[in-house]
Design a protein that fits this description.
The complex is a heterodimer of chains A (308) and B (64). With 308 residues, chain A is α/β, with parallel strands linked by helices. Chain A is built from 12 helices and 9 strands. The longest helix of chain A is centred in the middle third of the chain and has 19 residues. By secondary structure, chain B is mainly β. Classes of the chains: A alpha/beta (308), B mainly beta (64).
């Protein structure tokens, strides 16, 4: 349009800006936004020693935006590490009208990247779909799904021979988790670090997108023509996370940097608490033998509660 | 100017040129929760939107 006001320009070149990073006040054009996000993911992986030469990294790929971006980014960064391979694990919980589309999206992605893909269905692993598990218990959807998904991901990662399990949690997710654990008064969960396990009993989890905001991830996908408009999980309306997301998003808008500060606070608390909290002794589940902290693991506890 | 909202509905606004941020706040939308494009190109929230512009909004925060 003639006479249209000038668009904001990239802080690093003269290109039109597509991303505004509020905390630093920096504008980035398409090329610099793509490079910046890729570089920051590589930096997080390096800083936290998330991937080491020889690792076989299983990416938890739901087919949604975060896991799609994670797999694409790791695939691009792969040449940085010697002997590192990727494998994707997709969990099909059995959620009618939702999961089929995201699973299809995941399959398209792994085929285009040539990444080995393992698909684990709740129905095969637990004998029922999530929809069946949740009949009359919809309000508990996220906690029940969380326990089942965790087990399914571990099974998938073990079947794939993975040494690391990468999830697509972004900065918004991580900040929400910090706040939710504070609201619940759950200090042990707040300081739990699932990224390291010197005992070798667990496959360490890594979160390479933990410092990238949700909006940046969506922008990165759009700039790479990889955005797919997918349906929302029908159970998400019951989640506490949804309310926390809204509160935090408002705070982040009014006070840029809030989410990053929450993450930094968690790290500080972790360091201060190191050695102060008695580590939970590792025991073995009385029913299935999986490592756990109580008499029963979370999964067997859940099955008992649900009468399955 | 015309806003194409994430739910695929449209809203015509009769207002002078304003930043995208001011427009979104006026509509009760947190600028961090959407991505906007004009003529198929992504724009930042401090972009000034002209009276004849059509802005498409994409909601990014999805559960699941």
């Amino acid at each position: 349009m003639d006479g249209r006001p000038e668009v904001p320009r990239c802080s690093l070149c003269t290109g039109p800006a597509v991303l505004f990073q509020r905390q630093s006040g920096r504008h980035l054009c398409s090329a610099h936004a793509i490079a910046d996000i890729c570089d920051r993911v590589a930096e997080t992986i390096r800083e936290e020693s998330m991937i080491v030469p020889g690792d076989r990294v299983a990416v938890a790929l739901s087919g949604g935006k975060d896991s799609t971006a994670l797999l694409m980014l790791l695939h691009r960064l792969l040449p940085l590490w010697d002997g590192v391979s990727l494998v994707a694990i997709t969990i099909d919980e059995g959620i009618a009208g939702y999961r089929d589309e995201t699973v299809r999206s995941a399959e398209l992605l792994v085929n285009s990247l040539g990444v080995e893909h393992h698909r684990i269905a709740f129905e095969d692993l637990f004998g029922a779909t999530l929809d069946e598990y949740l009949k009359g218990r919809e309000k508990e959807a996220c906690s029940i799904c969380g326990v089942l998904r965790k087990k399914a991901l571990i099974v998938g990662a073990e079947r794939a021979g993975a040494t690391k399990l990468a999830t697509g949690h972004n900065l918004d997710d991580e900040a929400q988790s910090v706040l939710m654990n504070v609201f619940r008064g759950d200090l042990s969960r707040l300081v739990r670090n699932s990224g390291s396990d010197s005992s070798g009993r667990f496959i360490p989890r890594i979160k390479p997108l933990m410092k990238i905001a949700e909006k940046e991830i969506a922008t990165w996908l759009l700039l790479n023509n990889a955005w797919t408009d997918l349906p929302e999980c029908p159970y998400s309306r019951y989640a506490l996370r949804r309310e926390v997301r809204s509160i935090l998003s408002t705070l982040e808008y009014r006070h840029p940097g809030t989410m990053l500060h929450l993450l930094e606070s968690k790290k500080t608390i972790e360091m201060r608490c190191a050695g102060a909290l008695a580590p939970e002794p590792i025991r073995h589940c009385r029913l299935c033998g999986d490592p756990c902290s109580g008499e029963l693991c979370q999964l067997c506890q859940l099955k008992k509660t649900l009468g399955r | 100017m015309k806003l194409l909202l994430p739910d695929r509905s449209a809203r015509v606004l009769d207002m002078p040129p304003s930043t995208l941020e001011a427009i979104l706040l006026g509509e009760g939308i947190n600028p961090l929760e959407v991505i906007a494009s004009r003529d198929g190109i992504l724009i930042t929230e401090d972009t000034v939107i002209g009276t004849g512009d059509e802005i498409r909004l994409l909601r990014i925060a999805h559960g699941g």
